[in-house]
From TrEMBL:
Protein source organism: Mycena maculata
Name this protein carries in UniProt: Prephenate/arogenate dehydrogenase domain-containing protein
Boundaries of every Prephenate/arogenate dehydrogenase domain copy: 18-300
Coiled-coil region: none
Keyword Magnesium part of the UniProt annotation: no
GO MF assignments: NAD+ binding; prephenate dehydrogenase (NAD+) activity; prephenate dehydrogenase (NADP+) activity
Region listing for Disordered, in residue ranges: 324-343
Keyword set, alphabetical order: Oxidoreductase
InterPro entries, alphabetized: 6-PGluconate_DH-like_C_sf (IPR008927), NAD(P)-bd_dom_sf (IPR036291), P5C_Rdtase_cat_N (IPR028939), Preph/Arog_dehydrog (IPR050812), Prephen_DH (IPR003099), Prephenate_DH_fun (IPR012385)
SUPFAM superfamilies found in the cross-reference section: 6-phosphogluconate dehydrogenase C-terminal domain-like (SSF48179), NAD(P)-binding Rossmann-fold domains (SSF51735)
Any one GO biological process: tyrosine biosynthetic process
Length: 476
């Protein structure tokens, strides 16, 4: 590869800069275009479907450095670094169409969430003289890339090709994580599959009940705030963001299936209550999962600083408000939870199932936290950590799961939803996934704007707190 790009940066004269090509101008393609233009790169060639050419050209008329071209052939022939920002479902078809037009010695990347199909498409359709250095920003388009993990995959390329990609993307302010294609898919499954399944199931359950539970005074404040805001955040995004990872990543399928199994088995024990040793079996299973997932902290003899902000801080981002008294009558057992009348203690079945799933699959989530954690994974892991490392809160959840009945219908709907999503993924049908996602999405549509603002503020607060925590731990 020509060394002319050594040390190149946006401050170089335009004739000394590489041409950057973006094929696909969806949410992530636009995010890349925005940050590259803002950084000062002066030759950014972009395209989308041919039918969107005129509208895209009008939209970017006055945007510095960006030139809209008619199609992927134009971008491929003219660009030194090309990023395919298309859905994983369609990557093979798009690369087959435009890959043969790739400029000699160009570097090609894909911004897909699951890399196995991308790798196969690049190896099959790109000319042998091109280089492959792929990428993946592990966050959504609405999250600032600063400090977030950005995966780089040096697959078929010399070091100087990797260095050029590093130079081009450095303006994002992201943290580079170097993985292989196979490592990427395993890590993304471990950090996203179960968390996505949990929130998708929560949303589907609430839609099936046809109510916003936080408006009933039942799931408000504290860690419930995180659950609600992230659920709405996921359903406000495009369905294909989650479908590709779930359906095309074999590791993700295994995890989603185990999550549904964990939720089902725990719910069966909950229904048994204290009869015939049911409480002991339930407690033993929860404790076993706690030891597997969170026990390392105890073995090392030094405590991690918790991820989650205080529940009082999280209350600022709540869509609902805790009433002075329960909004609806809450039937309970003859041995009611001591906190039920004040905080509506519930089973936290989604969290119990998530940790139980990780334990059964021997996934150590904290190993991936420093490596390639998305903001949603980081936050939900923090919520689980908060529950499982608080003896009082965990005991309250166990007691409520076994003896309180007011949340049983909610938990039943959650289990049905989790099994439904598992079956949907196992069938491997994108159309079915799309339909299931959209049917739930419609129910929450009117709440996305408010939840989007609050959710972004909550994630920003968590990320700032995490940066401070990581800085303290690196100094100790």
């Amino acid at each position: 590869m020509d060394s002319v790009w050594d040390g190149v940066c946006p401050a170089n004269p335009i004739e000394e800069q590489p041409t950057i090509g973006l094929i696909g101008m969806g949410a992530m393609g636009r995010m890349y275009a925005k940050h590259l233009s803002k950084a000062g790169w002066k030759k950014i060639h972009v395209c989308d479907l041919p039918g969107k050419y005129e509208g895209l050209k009008k939209e970017y008329t006055d945007v510095s450095g960006i030139t809209v071209l008619p199609d992927g052939h134009s971008v491929s022939r003219s660009s030194d670094f090309i990023v395919y920002s298309v859905e994983a479902e369609f990557i093979e078809r798009v690369v087959a169409q435009y890959g043969p037009s790739t400029k000699m010695n160009a570097i090609v990347a894909g911004q897909t969430s699951v890399k196995a199909p991308e790798k196969a498409a690049f190896e099959k359709h790109l000319p042998p003289d091109t280089h492959i250095v792929s990428c993946h920003s592990l966050h959504g388009p609405g999250v600032s890339p600063v400090g977030q993990p950005l995966v780089l995959i040096q697959h078929r390329a010399p070091p100087e090709a990797l260095h050029l990609v590093e130079n081009i993307l450095r303006s994002f302010g992201s943290r580079y994580v170097y993985l292989s294609y196979e490592e990427h898919d395993l890590v993304t499954a471990n950090t996203q599959a179960v968390t996505h399944a949990a929130f998708l199931s929560m949303g589907t359950a609430w839609a099936a009940m046809k109510e916003y539970p936080w408006e009933q005074g039942l799931y408000v404040g504290g860690i419930e705030t995180a659950k609600v805001n992230i659920t709405l955040r996921i359903y406000s995004n495009a369905w294909h963001v989650y479908a590709g990872l779930a359906i095309l990543n074999p590791s993700a399928k295994i995890q989603i299936d185990q999550f549904a199994e964990s939720a089902t088995e725990l719910f069966k024990l909950m229904l048994q209550g204290g009869a015939e040793g049911g409480e002991q079996r339930f407690r033993e299973r929860v404790e076993w999962a706690r030891q597997i997932v969170f026990g390392e902290d105890e073995k090392d003899g030094k405590k991690r600083t918790p991820i989650l902000l205080s529940e009082d801080v999280l209350d600022r981002f709540s869509l609902g408000r805790t009433p002075a008294s329960p909004a609806v009558p809450l039937p309970s057992s003859s041995t009611p939870s001591p906190t039920n009348s004040q905080n509506n203690a519930n089973s936290h079945l989604s969290l119990l199932a998530m940790v139980d799933c990780w334990a059964h699959l021997k996934i150590q989530p904290f190993l991936h936290l420093a490596l390639a954690a998305t903001p949603i994974f980081r936050l939900f892991l923090g919520v689980a950590e908060h529950l499982f490392l608080s003896p009082t809160m965990l005991d309250s959840a166990i007691h409520s799961a076994l003896y309180d009945t007011w949340h049983r219908r909610d938990d039943l709907e959650f289990v049905v939803a989790a099994r439904g999503w598992s079956q949907c993924v196992s069938f491997g049908g994108f159309d079915l996934y799309h339909r299931r996602f959209e049917e739930t999405r419609v129910f929450f549509e009117g709440r996305f704007e408010e939840a989007g603002v609050l959710g972004s503020e909550m994630i920003k607060a968590i990320m700032e707190s995490e940066k401070e925590r990581e800085a303290r731990e690196s100094r100790s």
